[in-house]
Every structure is written in structure tokens, then in C-alpha cells.
Amino acid sequence: MNNKKRYYLIKFLGMTILLFAIFVLSIGMGSADITVPQILKALFSSGDAYLDKIIISIRLPRILAAIILGGALAVSGFLLQVFFGNPIAGPYVLGISSGAKLFVALTMVVYLGQGKIMSSAGMVINAFTGALISMGIVLLLSKKVRNMSMLVVCGVMIGYICSAITEFIIAFADDSNIVNLHNWSLGSFSGISWENVYISIIFVTASLFMSFFLSKPIGAYQLGENYARNMGVNISALRVALIMLSSVLSGTVTAFAGPISFVGIAVPHIMRSILKTSKPIVMIPACFLGGAIITLVCDDIARTAFAPVELSISAVTAIGLAPVVIYLLIKRKEAGHGTN
């Protein structure tokens, strides 16, 4: 094993241990403090019914969702940054999350109006459709607007339009469950069920596997389209794959947790700084781990900082990660080049 591989292994091992430690702490944190022995008893044997309900039915699915969806959002951000060749591209900034939110909210209101509840798979499909349409609009604009900074501004405007329409839909919806819909539209892991977790695992695992499988073509694409073509990469097929994968990942996140800001932008930058590389074969798993850690910590803050009042997850990620993005972009500009 060479020094570089050993360096990556140590970093990955450190992040995995950190994630596990935060996972255990997260189960114990909340309105009812739970000790590690009580956690183990609830997980591996039948203990106190009250604690079992708190851990197994409420906290564990929420924590697992934060890990899975936070990781998915970070990988989606990395794929979009590769696709657009822009360091501030991300599902939230480009309006993709807002498009997914609009479609899910619209469908949920229709279902609630008929006294029905939309399935988890249905939510993901609708979120994916919304994400794909928003991505399509951004791509059409990219043909007219060659300046990437202007493209990002257009993406932000699309996001605002979709969010405004969503607010209108929610404001005029007539249903007792509209409070939950409003909380979801701001970004929240509250109310996540085991069914949501299972569906998330299926969609996210499949997308991550495909992303990892495409690591070599993505790596060639990072070095320029001409280089990738010379290496035998089908550019059109790869671009479609990047769009589809990033839309599935961001759509799955939005379907169950609503829009979450800055994770998709910040985590890829943080992982590049830590690992000193942009190689997809390293960055994809690193972004997943980094996104899982950061999202889980932010969710812990959102639900415990001002308990019993719960903050939206986007409020916490924006406050915590926006300064990080600004700092890293300034640092990157001063360096004058990226690292491969």
C-alpha cells in the first residue's frame, strides 16, 4: 500500500469512527436523555416499552434518514459540480431541490384533499420529476447563457419561483395535515418513518453504485471533454447519467426531508480540502460520509438547541455551512487552481 492510499484509508477510517460516535450520541440526545446501556438494550433486546418507542420508532429512523439523505445530497452536489464545472453548483442553488419540492407539495395537497396519503415511492417519483424538469430548464438556459455565474443566478431565480408557487399551494391548501406539510417545505427530518428509510436506501444505494461505477469516465470528463472523448468516453451518455443520478439523489432527499441548503455545495469542497484530491473514486464515498456527518450534526442542533421548538434543518445548515463555502471559495481563488 502506497502512502497516498494509506492517507485515504486513515481519513476514511477517521470519518467512519466519527460518524458512528455521532450516531450513538444522537440516539441519546433529546427531550428524554438516554444512556448507552439503555440504547443497547432497546436495540438488541426488549426493554422498557416507552424507551423502545422513542428509540426504535422515532429517533432511529430519523437519524438513519439524516445519514442516508445527507450523504446523498453531498454526492448529488459533487456530480453537479462536475457536470457544470462550477464550484458553487448544487441542487439547492440551481433550483433543482425547489423544483422537486414544488412537485411533491402539489401532489401531496391533491392526495390530502382526497383523504389519501401518498406512498414513499410516489413521493420520490414526483420529486425526481420535479428535479428533472428544473434541471431541464437550467440546461436550456445554459445554452443561452454561457457565463456560469449568470447560469447560477438563473438557477437561484428558478428556485425562488418554485418556492413561491409552493408557498401559494401550501397557504391555500385546506387540510389538518398542512402544518406538517409546511414544516416539510422548510426542511425537516421530523416524522420520518421506517418505510421512508427503506425507500431511501433503495434509491440512494442504486444511485451511489452507478455513480461509483462511472468514476473513471467522470474523472476523464473532469480533465475536459476533448480528453474524455480521446479516452473513449461517450460524452452525451455520461452527461445524461450525471443529470439522472443527481436528480434521483436530490429528489429522494427533497421527497422525505424537504429542501436542505448548502450541504450539496459545501461538503464536496470540504472533502477536497481534507483529502487533497478531486478523483471521483475517492470523492464519491468521501462526500457521502462527509454529508452524513454534517447533516446528522445539523439535525441534532435543529431538534435540541431550542427544544421543544425545532428549527428547520436548512436554517442550521445555512448558518453553519454558508461561511465555510465563502471561505473555501476565497481560498480556492487565491490558490488559482484545483487539486487532482
Automatic annotation (TrEMBL):
It is found in: Cell membrane. Coiled coil: none annotated. Gene3D superfamilies: ABC transporter involved in vitamin B12 uptake, BtuC (1.10.3470.10). Keywords: Cell membrane, Membrane, Transmembrane, Transmembrane helix, Transport. The chain crosses the membrane at residues 7-28, 63-84, 90-112, 124-142, 148-173, 194-215, 235-268, 280-297, 309-330. GO terms for molecular function: transmembrane transporter activity. GO terms for biological process: siderophore-iron import into cell. It is a multi-pass membrane protein. It comes from the Bacteria. SUPFAM superfamilies: ABC transporter involved in vitamin B12 uptake, BtuC. GO terms for cellular component: plasma membrane. Pfam families: FecCD (PF01032). Belongs to the binding-protein-dependent transport system permease family. FecCD subfamily. This is Iron complex transport system permease protein. It comes from Pseudobutyrivibrio xylanivorans DSM 14809.
